[in-house]
Amino acid sequence: MDAAGHAYNLMSPAEVELVHSSTLRILREVGMEVQNQRLRKVMADLGLQVDFQSQRVRFPSPWVERFISEAEKQDWEKARPRVGG
Q1: Considering the domain boundaries, does residue 13 fall inside one?
Q2: pTM (2 d.p.)
Q3: Is 49 a member of any domain?
């Protein structure tokens, strides 16, 4: 986080890891509600666990980790906050 022109680390590395591992657990065990039927079908075709009745998709941890590793990276050190209205 950047405030008043200074970078602040609000969480320790252990806290960051706890948030990450907890997020993986929630996505794996609880999943997300996906209301779009076509998107649920695509996710099922990708091999994700989809409960079409409850509209819930669960994401295995390796799948999420691969998605993160392949996603475009953001340089947060150079990012500047923007406010819009």
Answers
A1: no
A2: 0.74
A3: yes
Report how many helices (DSSP H) and strands (DSSP E) the chain contains, helices first. Answer: 3, 5
Strand-pair category, 32-33 with 56-58: antiparallel
Partners of 7 in the beta sheet?
Answer: 2
- Residue of 17, 24, 21 lying closest to 67 (CA atoms): 24
* The token pair that represents 66 in the structure block: 């691969």
Residues 6+ away with beta carbon under 8 Å from 79: 2
Task: Read off the pLDDT of residues 19-62 as tens digits, 9 standing for 90 and up.
Answer: 999 999 999 999 999 999 999 999 999 999 999 999 999 999 99
Q: Is residue 26 part of a domain?
A: no
